[in-house]
Design goal:
The complex is a heterotrimer of chains A (about 240), B (about 230) and C (about 280).
Chain A (H helix, E strand, L loop, with lengths): L9 E10 L2 E11 L5 E4 L6 H9 L6 E6 L10 E4 L10 H11 L4 H14 L15 H14 L4 E5 L7 H16 L3 E6 L2 H7 L2 E6 L2 E7 H6 L4 H8 L5
Parallel strand pairs in A: 3-7, 3-8, 5-6, 6-7
Antiparallel strand pairs in A: 1-2, 1-4, 8-9
Helix pairs in contact in A: 2-3, 2-4, 3-4, 4-5
Chain B lengths: L6 H6 L3 H34 L6 H10 L4 H12 L14 H37 L4 H11 L1 H17 L2 H7 L9 H10 L3 H33 L1
Chain C lengths: L1 H23 L4 E7 H5 L2 H13 L2 E7 L1 H9 L5 E4 L2 H9 L3 E17 L11 H11 L3 E3 L5 H12 L4 H4 L4 E3 L4 H11 L2 E5 H6 L6 E5 L6 E9 L9 H12 L1 H8 L2 E2 L2 E2 L2 E2 L7
Parallel strand pairs in C: 1-2, 1-3, 5-6, 5-7
Antiparallel strand pairs in C: 3-9, 4-7, 4-8, 4-9, 4-12, 10-11
Classes of the chains: A alpha/beta (about 240), B mainly alpha (about 230), C alpha/beta (about 280).
Amino acid sequence: MRAAASDLPLVLDSVSLEANSTTILDRLNLTIGPGAPTLIVGPNGAGKTRLLRLCMGLDAPSAGRITWGGRADSEMRGRAILFQRPVMLRRTTAANVAYALAQVGLPRSQRADRIAALLESVGLSDLAQRPARRLSGGEQQRLALARALARDPEILLLDEPTANLDPAATRGVEEIVLAAAKSGIKIVMASHDLGQVRRLAGDVIFLVRGAVCEQAKAEYFLDHPKTQEAAAFLRGDLVI
Amino acid sequence: MSDQFSAWQLILNGDPALFAIVRLSLAVSLSAVALAALIGMPLGALLGLARFPGRSVPVVLLNTLMGLPPVVVGLAVYLLLSRSGPLGGFGILFTPTAMVIAQTILIVPIIAAPTRQTVEDLWVEYRDELTAMNVTPAGRMTTLLWDARYSLVTALLAGFGRAAAEVGAVMIVGGNIDGFTRTMTTAVALETSKGNLPLAMGLGVILLAIVLAINAAAWGTRVWSERQAG
Amino acid sequence: MASRFALRAFAVLVATAVNFAVASAEDRSIVVASTTSTQDSGLFGYLLPIFKAKTGIEVKVIAQGTGQALDTARRGDADVVFVHAKAQEEKFLAEGFGVKRFDVMYNDFVLIGPKSDLAGVKGQDIETALKTIQAKRAPFVSRGDRSGTHSAELTLWRQAGIDIGASKGSWYREIGQGMGAALNTASAMNAYVLSDRGTWLSFKNRGELEIVVEGDKRLFNQYGVMLVNPAKHPTVKQQLGQTFVDWIISGEGQAAIAGYKIDGQQLFFPNADKKGA
């Protein structure tokens, strides 16, 4: 059930995040609007995960404001997030999806059909009765996607979902993400795989040491980076 | 129960007194575990998830109560249920109900304290996902309790072990009445004080065998269940 | 779903527990507070089925020391007391907790000791024996629990001219438990112990122990029965309790008591006189 009001545009206004007297994110100003997927790239430790958690609303900024569709107080109803290592509930694959549906209030009578459809869309129909903890890494990530999509989200945030997966599994996940994007879901995804950026991105946010270094459409960023750090990153150098 | 026979002979003869004692022991202890779980698991989960200043106090208190001496609990419950006591009107002193009450009090902490720890540890792992899925506080408790069920079964078995093994509480609040409130443990105590040491020991072995059977059943259930749901 | 099944299982167990309460709040049952010596001797196992067959009344016996039994009755948790310490019983009566006291039966105490009889008291009268034991500091086990036997023991020390409270040493072991436990302890320590004959006759773990002093007039052990006063505790089952008291002092009850034997030996001797005090 999609939330009544829209969560887009997602605006970060001078958002900073501090912890233990270290600045993790430094006065970010970002606007994420509807459309093609936004990929967040940058070296490890740049703050990609923290940024995604802020966008989801799991954490609060130390300074600045985040607004979803102009509202500062927004329930997490219209958004969903995928973590790098998803937590599987100790039950079957289908039951995991059922759980997600229950949390968003879908009546019991409608669940069976929706579960079947979701499992179909992520290619896990054959594994519906398998204990979720016994799925492979790629299968678990796809189940996590099914759970996220069960929420009928407006925004889908993903934190390096294929970082631990082999190429075949990676492709499986990417296909689902692209299908979701096509159906109108706004994708915001962290990645440090440039190939993935090329395959999926509409626009790119390049993060270095907690600050937005560059922000541009994918083709421009990849082929004509403006900053030195971006160029170095694209070359494969370590950006310290 | 006849003094003439050994415990083994009593089993083979199907001695009704022996079977009545076994039935009562199981009924009292299993009922106590059920009630204690009904109280202790939500309590433990609540404490495991709650965050407030001074939280260490109830946590430490709960851990401490795991060591409640059975005989002290028995005495306290006796004073409550005595006709001269506040709850005397119910007239349940010297009945199996009083025994269930005393044992329940005894094992609530034994179930609640490990539940608290288990839920607290699991919450660390589950927090982001459950928060991101908009799970209500009540929902968190039930989800964590269900997902931690294998660990929690151990807490239940610890509670059952304690209940089945104790003699102090059931002796005081039950009165060890022949045919009504005599359990395996109070029977062992009685036969010992009558000098029937071999019979007492035999009864003790039977009690151990029963507890073993229950633990084996619990283990088997877990293995089967894991195969179903992982 | 498993959780629904579990819930149902809980409900069944709770219902069973509650059912116990209902079943045991039977109309025709009474609680008799009695002593460990009558329980451990097996007398009730013999008597109560006879009583139940005749009257249909279920007798639930709580076996404690005399002192504890009387306290239980004072709290209103028993309907009848059946104990053996006349002084304590009369105090109970004087306090208004009992209706009327009746003699029921007697047996005797015996001094038990190790076959080796290191204190050399075998065959002496009880006073001399106790004096000898105290002088030689021979190991002695005392019930120490305000029971009838314990009261009798203390009286005997007094009659022997010994202030046991002052002169007890490490040889005098107060265990605070029932007769069977005291005998077990004495058996393990090869110590002397005062016991009632009934418990001794049915006791199986004798080890090296045997009777060393018996037959002394001062070892007489009288049992009495009282209905707990309903004026003090209205919940006392007056009618049913009185039926038990009446039966145990009647010809039938007295004959039943005389009929209880172990290895052909009678343990208790009926001596009710129905007038009571």
